[in-house]
From TrEMBL:
HAMAP family: MetAP_1. Removes the N-terminal methionine from nascent proteins. The N-terminal methionine is often cleaved when the second residue in the primary sequence is small and uncharged (Met-Ala-, Cys, Gly, Pro, Ser, Thr, or Val). Requires deformylation of the N(alpha)-formylated initiator methionine before it can be hydrolyzed. It is an enzyme of class 3 (hydrolase). A divalent metal cation 2 binds at residues 136, 199, 233, 264. GO terms for molecular function: initiator methionyl aminopeptidase activity; metal ion binding; metalloaminopeptidase activity. This is Methionine aminopeptidase. It comes from Gomphosphaeria aponina SAG 52.96 = DSM 107014. Residues 41-271 form the Peptidase M24 domain. Binds 2 divalent metal cations per subunit. Has a high-affinity and a low affinity metal-binding site. The true nature of the physiological cofactor is under debate. The enzyme is active with cobalt, zinc, manganese or divalent iron ions. Most likely, methionine aminopeptidases function as mononuclear Fe(2+)-metalloproteases under physiological conditions, and the catalytically relevant metal-binding site has been assigned to the histidine-containing high-affinity site.
Amino acid sequence: MKFLTNLFFPETKEIRKQSGGLPPLRQSRRGIEIKSPGEIEIMRQSSKIVAKVLKEISEIVEPGMTTADVDTYVEKRIREMGATPSFKGYHGYPASICICLNNEVVHGIPSKKKVIRSGDILKVDTGAFQQGFHGDSCITVAVGKVTEKAEGLMRVAEESLYQGIEQVKAGNCLLDIAGAIEDHVKANGYSVVEDFTGHGVGRNLHELPCVFNFRTNKLPNVKLRAGMTLAIEPILNAGSKHTRTLRDRWTVVTVDNALSAQFEHTVLVTENGYEILTDRSLV
């Protein structure tokens, strides 16, 4: 789930508490948290659950399923593995995943009426909360045979994530991550969505710092320290970088109806580099 740079989440008259045993909604006031070895081990477990369920989704999604079918599967699997869906009830969000088709950018709400079809590109973003800590990750899946344009966008979106991750190590800064992502995206002719950023993740689903995907002097250029845990999540559009929010006040789409793709990992900063906690190749 994304951090909106100019508005944390859709406005609500009352901020609801998270459901299913999650702590009350709050932004951390502890600043940027450095996790202890014990806390990191817990995050490895919550992140492993997220990685496993997303890997399963990538293997089972098929034309004819609804986006609600995917949500039901993800919630069931997260709970079976002893965790709680991080998103469900978060600021009133009604589901365990954000699921977006084609031109939908972020925060798409699962629906029994929304049928997945061959040729779609499907973004599935989810989190798991276990023993006090969250893991968070997103994938984009090609459903059946997709166009070369869609394949290219997905490929560069995933490449840009790893370009950013390669810059993660103690002593580097957030702009090192952002610059690597932005350069790769623009070199391939796509645009970076600037309305949303990555974020710290741990005790809270969203923590400091904002992990941006483009060069800016409007956000703090934090120096990375070992023990930080970051959700790095570039979002790419095939057309304009600009977005708009639909009447449900959650679903964000591209303004020009162009395709959008995204990949995300929860990443631990180490002294000499990084560890991808949501690595699907390890589950």
